[in-house]
């Protein structure tokens, strides 16, 4: 789709300073190149010959010259619960809303690790205050700086070539520095900056509005923490704008809605079962409870950054794998399996 393609104009102009002259010498019409750079001609309607010539002038590949998926799209993290229920929006802001000691900095460190493996530039804007877990985030970030000026120069130099993941403390929202940085970055670079916003001091655990506008909300859940289920993301309260307006494909959206509905009912039944046992609920509710229990266990996942502590290898699941396995649980294919067998694992075993 045309609106999902953009020309990497900053990269092109940086590598070909006299673009108009160079384009003419390459046999291209200057007006055509100018219109492609300004967006008057959509990239999807440009001739392949023209794009190939521009890539040759810039000394880059077509993949570097053309930025795909510039619209509202998710970034796969390989973490089941996040990709299924509250995906990261490319170029958006993720809010980690949590109380102390709920694993939010471990999750940020894990996201930094995973995105670095995917080719993102990972940047941590170090806060003025310290907190347990900060060193883990710094260790998994490719770059760490403490001043807005350093962060600006770094990102301005990186985002011609790569998407950027920026980890930031909420204090930078309160000071106005994050807003100022974003305004400055509008003039440079082409690839998106995705922001992971944490509250280092956990001062506003019940008020996500204090984080400013969020595209993805990850609300950490005390009940999951008490049962050592990680990542402890509330499956009902956590959400993402990528779920709105049919930005997900139908398979993902259907699985997400079914899973959320099942987990909501499971959570409603938990207090009743704890107080009165299974005898007081209907057969349909019992089935829902058991499947919800299995799905909750399956969404727990080992992290790469936690391997020294958990002694379990980190797990990465593609979105396709997550959706396929979640559907098997929702459809009852795993009804004969104990939840403990699904807990803290990767993919479900496929029976031959």
Summarize the model shown.
The protein has 352 residues and is of the alpha/beta class.
Q: Over all CA atoms, what is the radius of gyration?
A: 23 Å
Largest sheet: 7 strands, mixed
Tell me the CATH topology of the largest domain: Cobalt-precorrin-4 Transmethylase, domain 1
Number of helices: 17
- Supply the helix-strand structural class: alpha/beta
Shape: globular
Q: In order across it, which strands form the biggest sheet? A: 7-6-8-9-5-10-11
Distance between the termini: 39 Å
Q: Low-confidence runs (pLDDT<50, min 5 residues)?
A: none
Strand content: 5-15%
What is the string of SSEs from the N terminus onward? EHHHHHEEHEEHEHEHEHHEEHEHHHHH
Mean pLDDT: 89
State the share of residues found in helices, binned by percent: 40-55%
Number of strands: 11
- From the 3D coordinates, which CATH architecture of the largest domain would you assign? 3-Layer(aba) Sandwich
**Count of discrete domains:** 3
Protein name: F-type H+-transporting ATPase subunit beta
InterPro entries: ATPase_a/bsu_AS, ATPase_alpha/beta_chains, ATPase_F1/V1_b/a_C, P-loop_NTPase
Family: Belongs to the ATPase alpha/beta chains family.
Subcellular location: Membrane
